[in-house]
Structure formats: structure tokens, C-alpha cells
Amino acid sequence: MALITCRDVSLGYESHAILEHLSFQVDAGDYLCVVGENGSGKSTLMRTVLGLQRALAGEIRFGDGMRQNEIGYLPQQTAIQRDFPATVWEIALSGCQARAGRRAFYSKADKALAEQSLSRMGMADYRSRCYRQLSGGQQQRVLLARALCATGKLLLLDEPVAGLDPKVTAEMYALIEGLNREGVTIVMISHDIAAALRFATHILHVGSRVFFGTAADYRESPLGRRFIAMEEGEGA
């Protein structure tokens, strides 16, 4: 069943459209990678799905009991955010804010969920550490734990391996793949086309031309072949 359905959606700012007439859906259990050139609207799409900005036109619907405030989100970090003076525990627990609603405190269930999420990410032993003292890979694990506190269904990940070394990148991809195998639906923006084709069930390519379909079909499509060759050429 579809968790997200986008129909004829146009995205942008004020009256300036970045993407127009975009249609796709994300089903439960999918691993969707969103690819495309820089500035093509990938992050704008995520912010629109999250309700952080409005679509200029079209419709975004949620199904299978999915609610917008139940989406787990891992955004790209700024330098200021990497230096945030909070503990690992405080960062992870803050992912339960949407569940807390108007409550002025976190419940036992919230705290248990935060503990579980940190354990799943291998960060339980770091719960008292200051977030800004962690390595980049450890910070991403904590943010992934935070995102898991918000959802049991759907994660939106915006370049989760950006700036990480190859070993830590491989570890992050393994963690994300493991979550998908456990039933968490993944929507991930990626510039790593090789990884996208390796892990994703579906590809959404946005830009002047749009493709939505299986990773296998994207690999064989004219747009996919052209973009893959371009990315491989730049990485050579």
C-alpha cells in the first residue's frame, strides 16, 4: 500500500517552480533513492513532503495510516548543528517530540524508544557524551536514532553519508539497508549513483527530465544510462 502519493506536483518558492508535474508513489517497504543534478529540487521535494513548505500545485497524499508528523527525517547538517552542545541522549530523545504532542515531558515509552533506537545504531554506550565531541559518522548514527524515534514506518534521509570516509560510508549504508529489511521504508537523496543502484528498489530522477521506476529499469533507460556515465566520468 502507498505511504506517499504525489500527483502532478509542482515545487518551488513563491511563484518560481523548480519542478513541475511530478508524479510518483512510495509503497511500504520501498527503498527509493532520489537522484539528479545539483539544484534540481531534491531537497525541496523532501521539505515539501515534510510540510515544511507548500507545493505550488498538485497533491501529496499519505496512506496506510501514515501521518505527516510520523515521518523520521535526517537532514543535511550545517557546521553550527555539528557543534550543538547537547548530549547524545538529549538529541535522540528529541525525536519523540511529535509523539509527546502537548505533553511537557517525555513518557517512559518515549525514553524506552530512545534507548532502543540508540542501541539499534550502536550508540547506547555514548548516551552521556556531548554530541559535538563525536565523529561525523557517530553523529549521523545519533541523528538516525533520533529519526527512528519519530517513526516506525518511513525515513527521509538527505545525503546521510555526505562527508564521511569510505569505511564509515559503508557502515551507514549497511545500517540503512538493515532498517529497510526490518520493514522501514526509506526515501534517500543521494549523489552516490553506484550505491543508489545497489541498494534501492526504486529510483526517482528529478531535473529537466524525470524518471520514476525500478532501479533495474532506470539502469536501462536513456536518462539513467546518460546520468550514470556522467557520474562515473566525474568520479574517475
Folded structure, characterized:
There is one protein chain. The chain has two domains: 1-66 and 153-163 and 183-236, Rossmann fold (3-Layer(aba) Sandwich); 77-152, no CATH class. Helices cover 39% and strands 24% of the residues. The protein has helices at residues 42-49, 79-82, 88-93, 97-100, 108-120, 136-150, 166-181, 193-199, 215-220, 222-235, and strands spanning 2-13, 16-27, 31-35, 57-62, 71-74, 154-158, 185-189, 202-205, 211-214. Strands 5-6-7-3-8-9 form a six-stranded mixed β-sheet, with helices on both faces. Strands 2-1-4 form a three-stranded antiparallel β-sheet, with helices on one face. A hairpin with a 5-residue loop joins strand 8 and strand 9. The longest helix is centred in the last third of the chain and has 16 residues, at 166-181. It starts with a strand and ends with a helix.
